């Protein structure tokens, strides 16, 4: 199929892009990398009247360390961030990006574009949720920030309004005593995950201070839970992963609510999540106590 007819504009600044969106009266759509949007247009699942291409907007293609956060601009390509030394400041980004689509897609796809698309099976929304990232949204009334916990409203639904642009995201950099884990199961590398997990554990003096897990591919958005008590109870076991399994199996029954499809039932996804969660929480815990991310 081919897209329905649309108007195309390519503003030179973010303010101009917002003005163009306002002029459409809510019938515009932002184009950055296009790796999610173009297929939607081609299948006529979306029919915006105007595409507002922000790739030429000045100052949005940025990767910048600002104190305790790594700021990523709206048009920063995933592949560029993947290859940047700055990604080492946020280890989960380095773990997750190689699993985002294929290398060719990451060369065009943007970090903020993946977050704005909010696919339930995507990796980056789960990373943002697990880390407590802060997203910057720009509209006619100015800029506002939205924590990841409030940004994702459901499948392909976010807090970005029809006349706003997701202009940047800020990921907190890894702190001393933090360890991370990432894993997913997909039919083929580059496919959306049947189930995946992102984990973060913070320890001090050998004791678990905080543990968070985000699951993706299992619900209508990344399912994020505080599992500090679960990890703390298993931390002194000879086999931490095995000690975590009963708890992650119970957690799976709570967070995996997808009805399933031809690729995997709900029960299968629950088993995948429980196994991956126990393994990656154990990995994150070990890394947090060993002083490496």
TrEMBL record:
Ranges that cross the membrane: none
PROSITE patterns attached to this UniProt entry: FAD_PCMH (PS51387)
Residue span, FAD-binding PCMH-type domain: 1-176
Domain of life: Bacteria
Gene3D superfamilies: 3.30.465.10, CO dehydrogenase flavoprotein, C-terminal domain, Uridine Diphospho-n-acetylenolpyruvylglucosamine Reductase, domain 2
Keywords carried by this UniProt record: FAD, Flavoprotein, Oxidoreductase
Protein name in UniProt: Carbon-monoxide dehydrogenase medium subunit
